[in-house]
Design brief:
219 residues, alpha/beta, Metallo-beta-lactamase, Chain A, seven-stranded mixed β-sheet, 27% strand, Metallo-B-lactamas, RibonucZ/Hydroxyglut_hydro
């Protein structure tokens, strides 16, 4: 399974000729480095929650128009997208087969944020190898301990590097793919990676420095 990062938390997964897209949000398309046309061959789009950095409605409309992709998300996102003519397959929790992708959806709480109601949110365990926790570091996710690849938010208003490191320590993944860093300038992202990479290496965890759109890993 190939996983390509397209800024912030937008990830394209490819398996057996099929493409699954996670969280095409506003930061992904903000500077024009990535366009909806990049995702014209996706078969399914998964939106973990309704925050704009994970859901760009205008871009999603164009992706669906170009690809004919199905959209999977929470009841809250389904209600939000209905006025825009976007149909959503509602997922609450449990296992589902999406083409070549076996998904286990887990309802998780968003990390606390300032003066804002927390959204409905789903984490996903993919093909028995990859955990995408969305914006949650919940203890619920410890059932995926020693996962092969952890998709790890490394920067956010609701995070510190100590919190990031502790969550990874608890899960003990073999590899980490950093996300949620699309709002920072390149030099700052690289500086953060310079901190995280040796820290995780000491624990025997491979940290993938995917700082530029279109960089990928294979698991």
């Amino acid at each position: 399974m190939k996983i390509t990062k397209y800024i912030h938390s937008c990830l394209l997964l490819e398996q057996d000729g099929e493409q699954l897209l996670f969280d095409p949000g506003t930061f992904t398309f903000a500077d024009g480095a990535v366009t909806p046309d990049t995702f014209k061959n996706v078969s399914t789009v998964v939106i973990t929650h309704q925050h704009p950095d994970h859901l760009d409605v205008k871009a999603l409309q164009e992706i669906v128009r170009l690809s004919g992709a199905a959209v999977l998300s929470t009841p809250e996102v389904a209600d939000q997208l209905k006025p825009y003519g976007l149909k959503v397959q509602v997922v609450v929790e449990g296992s589902l087969q999406v083409g070549a992708f076996q998904l286990e959806a887990v309802s998780v709480p968003h990390e606390p944020i300032l003066d804002s109601e927390l959204p409905q949110m789903l984490a996903f365990f993919i093909n028995g190898k990859v955990l995408n926790p969305a914006d949650s570091f919940s203890p619920i996710l410890q059932k995926f301990k020693r996962v092969e690849l952890l998709i790890l938010p490394v920067m956010a208003p609701f995070l510190t590097e100590l919190r990031v490191a502790e969550f990874a320590r608890q899960l003990e993944p073999q590899q980490i793919l950093p996300v949620h860093d699309g709002y920072a300038k390149d030099f700052f992202v690289e500086q953060r990676y310079d901190t995280y990479e040796p820290h995780f290496a000491e624990q025997g965890i491979q940290f993938h420095r995917l700082s530029q759109p279109g960089q990928s890993v294979t698991v």
